[in-house]
Amino acid sequence: MDGLAKQAAACVAGPADQVSHGEGQAGGVILLGIATSGSLIATQVAATVLITVLMLTFVMHIAASVLTRSALPGLATSILPGVPGR
Fold first, then answer.
1. Distances in Å between the alpha carbon of 24 and those of 13, 17, 28, 36, 59?
2. Could you say which of 11, 59, 82, 84 is the most buried, measured as most Cβ atoms within 10 Å of its Cβ?
3. Which are the contacts of 62, defined by CB distance < 8 A and separation ≥ 6?
C-alpha cells in the first residue's frame, strides 16, 4: 500500500507544472482563436468543441470525486464558483 501512495504522490503536478499547463492551455486557446478568426463556421465549430470538452472535463472531475469518495482540489470552486477550494 505504501508503494501505491508513493506512486500517486509522484503523479501530482507541482506548482511549476501547474503554471506551465495553464500557460499551454491559454496559448492553445489563443492560437485556436487566431486560426479560426477568418471564418464564422470555423469559429462556431471550434467554440462548440471547446465547450464540449470543458463540459466533459467538469463531469469527469465530479465523477472522480464521487467514485473515490474524496474531494479533489478545486471541487468546491467547480460546484460554487468563488468558494475557496481549501
1. 14, 10, 6, 18, 22
2. 59
3. 75, 78, 79
Distance, in Å, from the CA atom of 67 to the CA atom of 82, rounded to the nearest integer, reads 24
Task: Report CA-CA distances (Å) from 7 to 2, 23, 56, 65, 66.
Answer: 9, 26, 26, 19, 22
10-residue block means of pLDDT along the chain (86 residues)?
Answer: 59 70 86 92 93 91 80 65 61
Left, alpha or beta for 39 (phi > 0: left; psi -120 to 50: alpha)? beta
Spatial distance between the Cα atoms of 69 and 79, rounded to a whole number of angstroms: 16
The number of C-alpha atoms within 13 Å of 4 and in the hemisphere containing its C-beta is 1
The grid coordinates of residue 83 equal 468558494
Question: Is the entire prediction scored with pTM above 0.90?
Answer: no
In a 3-state reduction of DSSP, which class is residue 21?
A: helix
